[in-house]
Amino acid sequence: MATDVLVPTLGESITEATLGQWLKKPGDAVKADEPIASLETDKVAVEVPAPVAGTMGDHVVQEGDTVAVGALIARIEEGAGATAPQNRATAKAETPAQDPAHAVNPGGPGENPSLAEDPHAPMPGQGQDSSSDLGLTLSPAVRRVVLEHGLDPSKIKGTGKDGRLTKDDVLAAAKAQKTESAAAPAQTPAPAPAPVTTSAAGERREERVRMTRIRQTIAKRLKDAQNTAALLTTFNDVDMTEVIAARSKYKDLFEKKHGIRLGFMGFFVKAAALAARDVPSVNAYIEGDEIVYHDYLDVSVAVSAPNGLVVPIIRNADKLSFAEIEKTIADFGRRAKDGTLKMEEMQGGTFTISNGGVFGSLLSTPIINPPQSAVLGMHRIEERPVVRDGQIVARPMMYLALSYDHRLVDGREAVTFLVRMKEAIEDPTRLLIDL
C-alpha cells in the first residue's frame, strides 16, 4: 500500500514553494517523520517529513519545480523495506542536489562521519573528484567551490544541519590548505618547477545556477524598497571605549550567571529602544495614507544563512534584559545556519539592525526592510585618532549608519535618533537609568 506525500501547510499567506532537494531517493528505507525532502519558501527552508515508515517510491516532482500547498510530491510504500539497512554506500548516483544549505549526512548530533559513510556517497576510489559523483551529496554552489579548490569533501567537517557541508565550510578548508601550503617550503626543499600547461592558462568557465526562492524574494523586496521609499542615509561615529570596558569587566560574571556571552548587540538594541522613545517615527511605518506608530520595539536582526540573509524578530526588545536579548540572537544565529527558523519568527518587525562589522565592513548604506521605515547599520570597530580634551588619542571607534524613509522620517529626527544612540553607547549608564 502506498501513502501519498503532500506539501504541508507552509504558513500564513504562503501558497507555494520550490522543491529544493530530495533527501531520500527511490528505493531508500525511510522512517516515520524522517525528513525526505527540503522545500524552499520565500523566507526559510522547510523539511518534509515522511508520513509513514516504508520504502521511498518514485519522485512525482523534480528538484527546482514549484509546488503548491497540498500537492503530491512522492509516494511511500508502507512496510516494505522499513527496516532496511541505512548504509547504501554503493548506491548509484541520481539527481544532483540543489539546496546550497544541505549536503546529506546521516550522522546524528556530535558525529562527524566522512562523505564515504554517507548513504548516498560514492565509495572511495570511485571518482570522487568528478562533478557527477559529487553532485549527489553536494549542492551546486558547494560542489563548485570544492572543484575550484581541488578539495576532498570527505575530509571537511560539515557545520550545516545534521553535519552537512556548506559553502563556508569548504571556503574555510581552502583557506587552511593555503596556509599549510605557504608554510611547507620552509620545512621541505622546494620541488622542481612543474612544466607549464598552456591549455588551461586561458580557460574561462561559466555556471548557471537557478536562484533560490529566498534569493528571489530578497531581490524583489530590496528593489521594491528602492522604488517605493524615499531612501536617505545619515551617519555618525561612536566611541566604543566604555562598552568595551563594561564587557571586559563583567563578561565572566555574565556568562557564569546567564550561560551566554555578553555581546555588543545587547547594548545597541537597548540603545535603539531608548532612542525610539524620543523619535517614534523611526519605529513606525506608512500604511496607505496613514502612519502606524508602535508602543513596542520588535527588532529585526539581520542574520547570515546559507541561502541568503534572513531577519528573525526579537519581539518586545525594549522590555527584554541584556541576557534575554543575547540568548535570542544566539539562538537565531544557530537556527538560521541549520535552516530551522520558523516562518512566524520572521514576520513583522518594526525596526532593523544589521551588523556588517562582523564581516569587516567599515561603512555602508543599508536598505530598509519594508514596510519598516528605518534600519541601523553597525560596522567594524577600529582604533582611530580622535581629539579628547585637546589631545589626539587613539580610541576604538565605530561608524553607525541610519537609512530611513524620508517620506516619514525627517532629517532632524534621523540625526537625533543617532545622537541618542551615540550618547547611550558612549555612556552605558544611560541604559540603566533610562536617559
What would you say about this model in short?
The protein is an alpha+beta fold and 435 residues long. The chain has helices at 131-134, 140-149, 167-187, 213-228, 241-258, 265-278, 322-338, 411-426, 429-433; strands at 2-6, 16-22, 29-30, 35-40, 45-49, 54-59, 66-68, 72-78, 231-239, 285-287, 290-292, 299-301, 303-305, 308-310, 313-314, 351-355, 374-378, 382-388, 391-405.
Q: SSE layout and pairings?
A:
Layout: E1 2-6, E2 16-22, E3 29-30, E4 35-40, E5 45-49, E6 54-59, E7 66-68, E8 72-78, H1 131-134, H2 140-149, H3 167-187, H4 213-228, E9 231-239, H5 241-258, H6 265-278, E10 285-287, E11 290-292, E12 299-301, E13 303-305, E14 308-310, E15 313-314, H7 322-338, E16 351-355, E17 374-378, E18 382-388, E19 391-405, H8 411-426, H9 429-433
Parallel strand pairs: 12-16, 16-17
Antiparallel strand pairs: 1-8, 2-4, 2-7, 3-6, 4-5, 6-8, 9-19, 10-11, 12-15, 13-14, 17-19, 18-19
Helix pairs in contact: 2-3, 6-7, 6-8
Classified by CATH, the class of the largest domain is Alpha Beta
Label the CATH architecture of the largest domain: 2-Layer Sandwich
Fraction of residues in helix: 25-40%
What name does the CATH topology of the largest domain carry?
Answer: Chloramphenicol Acetyltransferase
What does this protein look like?
With 435 residues, this protein is an alpha+beta fold. The chain has 3 domains: 1-84, OB fold (Dihydrolipoamide Acetyltransferase, E2P); 87-182, no CATH class; 218-433, Chloramphenicol acetyltransferase-like domain (Chloramphenicol Acetyltransferase), CATH 3.30.559. The protein has helices at 131-134, 140-149, 167-187, 213-228, 241-258, 265-278, 322-338, 411-426, 429-433; strands at residues 2-6, 16-22, 29-30, 35-40, 45-49, 54-59, 66-68, 72-78, 231-239, 285-287, 290-292, 299-301, 303-305, 308-310, 313-314, 351-355, 374-378, 382-388, 391-405. Strands 9, 12, 15, 16, 17, 18 and 19 form a 7-stranded mixed β-sheet that branches. It has a 4-stranded antiparallel β-sheet with strand order 1-8-6-3, with no helix packed on it. Strand 4 (35-40) and strand 5 form a beta hairpin. Helix 2 runs parallel beside helix 3 (167-187), helix 6 (265-278) packs across helix 7 (322-338) and helix 6 (265-278) crosses helix 8 (411-426). The N and C termini lie far apart (68 Å). Residues 81-136 have low confidence and may be disordered.
